[in-house]
Structures are given as structure tokens and as C-alpha cells.
Amino acid sequence: MDEMIFNTLSISAVSSAITGMMGLPSTHLAEKPLSSLLKAADYRFGREKADRVFMYNPDAIALWLFQKYTHMFEEVLLNTSLAIPLASVMPSVTPVCFATMYTGAFPDKHGITTYTKPVLKTDTVFDVLIRAGRKPAIVSTSGDSISMIFLEREMDYFIYETEGEANEKAFELIEKDKHDLIVLYNGSYDSRMHKVAPEGKEALQALSENVKTFGKISDLIKTNWTSHNCVLAFAPDHGCHEIDAGCGSHGLYMPQDINIMHFYGFYPKKS
Ligand SMILES: [Zn+2]
Question: Which of 75, 186, 227, 230 has the fewest CB atoms found within 10 Å of its own CB?
Fold first, then answer.
């Protein structure tokens, strides 16, 4: 058998699942939500809504990487209870895919169809929260897609030079417990895999660091957000593949670039 298999559910369904779990309306252009995610939240929260969502967005973690290096994902598996194979969108590059994840719209509708990072005018999950009086925050590194395409909203942006600083800020925000939605972007796996190939030593080291960061976030949520119904996501944007000269790439319509896994953990309030 030589056929190419693509995941059947789309990352376009993540947006209205996030807003739906929080009891909020979908963005203006959102596709239908991931029903398994909504049902899992309903079940775990006893039909109450989520009031804290943490989206951990590591860049370029492919489904095949999870299949081949499953042992490296232990802290993701142990801290989540729902894993959903998803198909990213085309072209499978960072600004296009994250725009789809947070608008719920396909690229021809949200407007970023190439590797460019304009400020999105399209309605996003962040806009939905702001209209509802909730507080979203984006924590990221400067120059990266997530730091740029969602700007110009009345919300908090914490943009740093290094991933370490961004992660420390995200940890601090969990402890302060002032935001309803926190998005944390980590681009270290992507930047290293472009240089040393997806399975290069430094790339796998970055993957290991991403998983460790996710474990730390899980621990902090469990100890600091006990009065909330919390959702924690490990949610990459697209995959990657090896190219000539020991480098890595993505952007094509091929299973290695399109197929990803999302993992969701649910922590009901304790008091
Ligand atoms: Zn990316």
C-alpha cells in the first residue's frame, strides 16, 4: 500500500471548540468545532464551562514525530486525556496555520495564504474573549508569527527575545491567575529542525525541552488553578520533513507536513 493518508479532521475546528468550551460564541468565520473536544470538556466539567484555557503551541511537531518518538512525549500523554489527529492547512507554514487555528477559518477566508505576517483583520478567538469581557494573553518570541498576526487587540502581549524568558513569563502568569486564555508559542524545534533536519540531535533536544516545558505548565496549572475548570492543550501548527543536505522543511501538501496531533488535558475545579 503506497497511498498517502491525511488526517480527516482539520485544525480549523479548534477555534470554535475553544470558544465553545468557554461558553462563548464562535468567531465570525469559524468552521464547526471539534465535537470530541467539546464533549470531553462537558463530561469532565460536569456540564460547566471551562474558565481557564492554556494553549501551548510548539512549532512543527509532526504526527510522524510523535509516532516515531512516542517515548519522548510521556509528559504530554500523562497530563492529557484526549488526543486528536488533525490535518493542518495549505500552505503548511506557521502564520497560515496559526491564523486558521485561532480564526477557525481556512486560509482563503482569513486572508493569510503565504508566508507573510500581517496583522489579521479577521475575527479571532481573542476578539471573542475580549467582546465577552474575558482576558486573553499571548506569550511569544519577537518576530515570530504569533507575536505579529494577532496584534492590535485590547489584550496583553508578552513578547521576549528568548524562549526561556517567554516560558518564565507564562509560568508567572499561571501563578498570577489573571488571564482566561493564555497562548504560549515555542519555536525552538522548528528553528533547529530547519538547520539540522527533523531528527537531528539538536532538533530532538528542542523537542525534549518543549515536552518538559509542557510538563511544568501542567504542574503549575494543577497547583495554581484549582478553583477553575481548566483546559490545557499541546497544539502544534503543522509538521515537517527532511530535505537534502541534512536540513528540514515544511509547507507542502504531504502527510509529513500536514498531519499533526493535538493533545488536551482537563482539570476540573476542586473547590
Ligand atoms: Zn510553524
Answer: 227
